[in-house]
Amino acid sequence: MATERFDAIIVGAGPAGSAAAYTMAKAGLKVVMIERGEFAGAKNIFGGVLYRKQLEDVIPEFWQEAPVERRVVEQRMWLLGKDSVVTMGHRNEAFKEPTNAWTGLRVKFDQWFASKAEQAGSLNIYETVATELIREGDRVVGVRTDREDGDLYANVVVVADGVNSLLGQQLGIHREWNPDQVSLAVKEVIALPKEKILDRFNLEGDEGVTTEFIGQLGGMMGLGFLYTNQETVSFGVGVMVNDLKRTKIRPYELIENVKQHPVLRKLLQGGESKEYAAHLIPEGGLHAVPPLSGNGWVVCGDAAQLVNFVHREGTNLAMTSGLYAAEAIIEAHARGDFGKQALSGYDRRVRESFIHKDLKKYQGLHGLLKEIDSNLFDKLPEALNSAAFQMLMIDGVSKAEKQKMAIKALREAAGGTANLIKLGLKGWRAMNG
Amino acid sequence: MSSIAEKLYTIRYKVDENSHLIIKDQDVCLHCETKECQYFCPAEVYEWHEDEKQTSVAFENCVECGTCRIGCPFANIKWVYPKGGYGITYKFG
Questions:
Q1: Domain range for A370
Q2: Residue range A109-137, pLDDT digits in tens
Q3: Whole-model pTM?
Q4: ipTM over 0.85
Q5: DSSP-based helix, strand, coil % in chain A, nearest 5
Q6: Which of B14, B41, B83 faces A129 most closely, judged by CB atoms?
Q7: Do A146 and B83 touch (CB under 8 A)?
C-alpha cells in the first residue's frame, strides 16, 4: 500500500465519510477513504429516508444524478392495536418542490456518493479494515489496516466507522454503548409491482409515502416502518437492545409477527422478500455524544451517536457532521496546525447547528424512556384503539358513558391517573429540552 | 412465514476461514443463566449445547450488527470486523 503521507484519512465510506472526503478533496486536500466492504454501501442499511437539505449543502442539485427512490409526499404515523389501527399523518403537495425527502436504498446511494468523492480526487480503497489508530504521543497520526504493509499516515484521521466504532473505543472517547443506548433494526426489502405500490399507497409517478408505527412490538420500546421505493418497499422494526434482552423475542420472529398484522399484511401481500438485513441504531441522545475532536482526529456520524431518533434522522446528521469536520480540517490545513484546538472548529460548527440544537431539545427523552415501562409502547396504543372503537361503535350506549370508559382504559394502561399525568408532563418536558 | 434460514439466504456472504467472533471464556457461558445471545442475535449465530457445555458460533451467518458485543451480559464475546472484503454484502441496503 502507498507509503506516502495524506492530509486526511477517512475511515468508512458511509454518508459521513463520503461527505468529508468529497468536501476535502474538492478543496484540494490529499485524502484517502478506506472502506471494509467490497464497495461503499456493501455493509450499510438504513430505514430509507434521505433528506434534501443536508445533502444539498454538500452537493448542490444532487437529485439530478443521485440514485433516489421516491419523493416523500406523505408521512403517516400509525398506532397499532391487536387487529386495529389509529392513524395520523400529513400529506402535502408542497413537499414536492423543493422536495423535502426521498426514500432510498443504501447500496446504490452510498456507491454514488463515494464515487463523487473519488471524482473530486479522493483515493478510495475498498476491502480494507482499519484495525487500529497509529499514535505518536497524544496525537493520532494514522491508521493501521489489515492489508500487508497497510499503515497509512496523515495529519488528521476522520473516524466515520459507524455505530460499531471500534476506533472510537480505541480513542477512549466512549466505552461500549449500553444496551439501552442502541436499538436493533431488522429490515426486509420486499418487491412489489410498481402498479400495486401506486394503488395501495395512493400514489402517482415518483411520489412516495413513509409510514411509521408503534404498538404490537412484543411489549418492547420501538418503532416499525414501511417506506415505498420504486419497485420495492422497505419494511422493518427497530427495538431497544435492552428490551430484546428482557423479552427474549427473536428479532426475525418479531418482523414476521408484525407482517401478519391485518393492516400491514394487506399492504405487503404478494410481495417477494429480496433481502433481510440488520443494523444497530445509536439512540443514546445528546448525553451519549462523545468528544468530537482531539489531537489529529475527529469523529462523525453514527460513530459519534449523532442520530435524532425522535425524527428518525441519521444520515442527514452524518452528512452534515462530515461536511463540518471537513471544513474545520480545511481551515486547520491552511494554518498547518492539526491539534485539538485547531480542530475545535468542528465542535463549534456542530454546536451552532441543528445537530446539537435538535439533540438538545430531546436530551431528557432518553432518561424518560429509561424510566418508563416498555410495555406502555403496547398498552397505550391498544387503549387508544379501544377508545376509538368504543366512540365509533353505535350500540346504544351513551356517548358520556363511552367517554368515561375510554378515559378509564387510558388511565389503566398508564397505571393510574397520577402516572398518566406524570407521563404527560414528563413527556412534554422531555420533548422540549 | 419465512424462516431465519430463508432470510439469511437473501444475503451474499464471502466467508473467511477464521471466525471474527470469539467466545472469550466458555465457562462464563456455562454459568450464564439467561444465555440470551441465542435470542437477540438477528442471524441465529449463537447456540448453547447442553451436552457439550458450550456455545457454538456460526460466524458464517453473522450480519455484523454488533448486538452480541453490546448485549452479552458478561461482555464475553470478542467482536471484530471480518477481514476486508469478507462477510456480508448487501444488494439493496
A1: 366-431
A2: 999 999 999 999 999 999 999 999 999 99
A3: 0.95
A4: yes
A5: 40, 25, 30
A6: B83
A7: yes
